Amino acid sequence: MDAVSDLQPVLHRIDDRVDDLVELTRDLIRFPTINPPGEAYQPCAEYIGKRLAKRGFAIEYVRAFDVPGDCDAYPRINMVARREGSRSGPCVHFNGHIDVVEVGAGWTVPPFDGLVKDGRVYGRGACDMKGGLASAIIAVEALIDTDPEYPGAIEISATVDEESGGFGGVAYLAERGWFSAPRVDHVIIPEPLNVDRVCIGHRGVWWAEIETKGRMAHGSMPFLGESAIRHMAAVLDRFEQKLYPKLAERISDMPVVPDGARQSTLNINSLHGGQAEGHDGLPAPCVADSCRMIIDRRFLIEESLDEVRSEITDILEDLVKSRPGFQFDIREMFAVEPSISDKNGPVAATTAAAIQEVLAVEPSFICSPGTYDQKHIDRIGKLKDCIAYGPGQLDLAHQPDEWVGIDDMVAAAKVMALTASRLLRRTA
């Protein structure tokens, strides 16, 4: 089964199942698994589990208790399916998240109908990443049908909460050994990163809330108070004058796409200051005693999380010394270290070779500008042989009229089937 010619039957079987692939994708889109709050997780997970159970997979449903968002109304239900082969060997795991972001405005097609038009399947989550999960399922089913005596084990998981950090999904499972050796050897996450690219990692992220403090006074006599908004303006000025120029100079050796993301970045996510307007829409006649800013810092493998934190706190501490009346609080909201796998490692190299065979193009190795669930498999599971590969274009994710190309799903399924077959027979 190592030669390309020996694997032609599985490729032909995928070609014969295009309609099944499309219908599976449509069915998954029709579950409105919006996060937050975490709608329809359980019926979507059970739909996938029932399908795989018919193909000989042992199914487990794992609820993530005591994680953000989990409650009886919106239980964090994950599905893990495992099918043992005919003899001992490695385990290949396909992981896909089933949660999607909110619909938002601007749609011209129904977001949860799974409309098929012009070679595309439309819907919220079509690209990110129900089309990829459907491709992985079809790939595995085709492989089982053409090679029922495969060695090792195949796993497929449908997990939740990736869009909100993955704590109720992959992180929860990783903490309990589901993504660690000896249970699992190789992981493929079918995120939408284009079918001719292998994603080997991602930048780090640090989210924090900065609050500047003031003293309330009448708006007609601001000199009797202390404006927290003006203090926040001083923070923003330091960012513009000192921090942003430094970040722009830092260019990573990580192959992050697009090119602009190869540098360190800082986004101001939101800014809230002062008292809310009244019912009549008129402002409160007060000096602002509080101003809050949420920052989103994306950093490189060459930077440490401690350095990222200290760059911000150093600016704030310097303002305490140099600006009269300046006071602040800072609260860390989320932190993830950068992650990168070896492009010459088993899963990356095998996937790249399969891309070249299926698409007849030279594949590229990339890193994602944002994070995805590889972070938990790497940092918690201590499993390094993990990549993201799947159909769909990254810039379509979270957009109105989100779609995934049918041809791309077929190609991705073929690549994943070839990759899994070869990894299962890998002896070293």
3D architecture notes:
The chain is α/β, with parallel strands linked by helices and 428 residues long. The protein folds into two domains: 5-202 and 338-424, 3-Layer(aba) Sandwich (Aminopeptidase); 204-336, Alpha-Beta Plaits (2-Layer Sandwich). The protein is built from ten helices and 16 strands. The protein has a six-stranded mixed β-sheet. A four-stranded antiparallel β-sheet has the order 10-11-9-12, with helices on one face. It is elongated and about 80 Å long. The protein starts with 7 loop residues before the first helix and ends with a helix. Residues 1-5 have low confidence and may be disordered.
By DSSP, the count of extended strands is 16
Order of helices and strands: HHHEEEEEHEHEEEHEEHEEHEHEEH
Main beta sheet, described? 6 strands, mixed
In helices, the fraction of residues equals: 25-40%
Radius of gyration: 24 Å
Mean pLDDT: 96
Number of helices: 10
Which topology of the largest domain does CATH recognise?
Answer: Aminopeptidase
- What structural category do the secondary elements indicate? alpha/beta
In the residues, how many domains can be counted?
Answer: 2
Shape: elongated
Instruction: Name the CATH superfamily classification of the largest domain.
Output: Zn peptidases
Low-confidence stretches: 1-5
Main β-sheet, spatial strand arrangement: 1-2-6-3-7-15
Share in β-strands? 15-25%
